[in-house]
Design goal:
11 strands; Trypsin Inhibitor V, Chain A
């Protein structure tokens, strides 16, 4: 038995000596096959190959309940958006999810949740009184207010905002107001005329008055901006002048200080010369 093993070993050694390239190539091929098999095993382990779960539907659920369901299913989750507020959803409710409900995924995937904000955005109410009604409406809608209405009352000036109410209450400019609040703008219709109280302005006249008021408001705004810029420029110049004065004062102080130092040095030199004269 031992002799047969020795013969086989010797035959292999002789074959390897005669064909070293062929033997080494075969060994390398076997090593690559073994390495590939081991790699596939690791890939299966780390990617949960073949282990898929169905994504539960957590839409329209409170976030806390949705999290419990996902974690019970062995799934991970993250909140992708929680800043947008929708009126038709309760605060803190899951609006959407990705991947979609009832799709099959691996457990290593993350479920991204879009959650309704806890409250509607709150924005400071701008000053609107005496502005044209159309401009006030456009301003509020551009800022994000959703429930804005406008009505008119008899007045001498047409098209200008007379008052603003929030949920039926008068609110001062700058007050934080929810974008979902009901805002009503009251605008004068220009139907009251001092010279002829019986005269009623027609729609074309009202439109021309509204446009004129808008132009006046725009002109006033531009004049205020120019005045503010002029004041800022004046303040800048005053500040520069003050800084220049301070620098000049510092320079004068430095000059006086230098003069004192030069005088002291000169006095010292004179004293030294006098001392030398006395010694001589």
């Amino acid at each position: 038995m031992s002799n047969n093993n020795d013969k086989n070993s010797g035959g292999f050694n002789r074959f390897r000596d005669r064909h070293p390239i062929l033997v080494n190539s075969a060994l390398m091929a076997l090593a690559l096959v073994a390495f590939g098999y081991i790699a596939l095993l690791f890939i299966d382990v780390f990617t949960s190959h073949g282990q898929q779960v169905q994504v539960p539907d957590v839409r329209n659920m409170p976030l806390e309940k949705a999290i419990d369901i996902l974690e019970d299913a062995g799934l991970r989750w993250e909140i992708s958006d929680s800043t947008t507020f929708y009126e038709n959803y309760k605060p803190g409710t899951v609006i959407d999810q990705d991947p979609k409900a009832k799709s099959y995924i691996k457990k290593i995937r993350i479920i991204y949740l879009s959650v309704n904000a806890m409250h509607a955005p709150i924005i400071a109410l701008p000053k609107l009184v005496e502005l044209p009604g159309r401009q006030g409406m456009a301003t509020l809608k551009a800022m994000g207010y959703k429930n804005v209405t406008m009505d008119s009352v008899p007045s001498e000036m047409g098209g200008l905002i007379l008052e603003v109410t929030v949920d039926g209450h008068h609110v001062a400019p700058g007050t934080p107001v929810s974008v979902n609040s009901k805002i009503k703008i009251t605008v004068g219709d220009g139907s009251i005329v001092d010279l002829n109280p019986e005269q009623i302005l027609d729609p074309e006249m009202l439109d021309s008055i509204d446009e004129a008021n808008y132009q006046d408001a725009q002109k006033t705004y531009e004049e205020e901006m120019k005045a503010a810029q002029a004041r800022a420029e004046q303040e800048r110049k005053s500040q520069s002048s003050e800084e220049k004065k301070d620098k000049d004062k510092d320079k004068d102080k430095n000059k006086d200080k230098k003069k004192d130092q030069d005088k002291k040095s000169s006095d010292k030199d004179k004293k030294k010369d006098q001392d030398k004269g006395k010694k001589n």
